[in-house]
Amino acid sequence: MKIQALICYYFPVGIEEKNADILPRILAKAIDFLLAMLLVELIPRVGYYAAVIFILIGDSFFKRASIGKKLMGIEVKSLRHEMVSPARSSILRNSTFALALVLWKIPLFGWFFFIAIAGIEFIIMLGNADRMTIGDELAKTKAVEILFKEEK
Length: 152
Description:
Layout (H helix, E strand, L loop, with lengths): L1 H9 L2 E7 L2 H21 L4 H11 L9 H6 L1 E5 L7 H8 L1 H9 L6 H18 L6 H6 L1 E10 L2
Antiparallel strand pairs: 1-3, 2-3
Helix pairs in contact: 2-3, 3-6, 6-7
């Protein structure tokens, strides 16, 4: 936010939000998932649990943005009027993908469950006008892109 404030102070720009596009959201989730898999490989014995926790609380790292979302220029915006902790919102938002990651460990059928949950989330995001997923509905949030526009 400090960089945005500096830009707005020195340059005549306004900040505008729009619903995040589908491709950046998918890429952001893929980056987060790859980082989670890196945790699984790098930390013996507890890496899998660290990956599940990373997926759950990932959106609370950078002021309501996971590492993947931050790289893709996406933030999570709360639709509630009262202040809700970013960690609580992140856990609710990402509970479906964390469940998919937990079910992934089931022998033979784990991949099916993972792909099914990810597919359902994707289809719901496509069908929703605000591009909200099941996790967004649970946490009352939505993913937005922050745009800078020049004021005239």
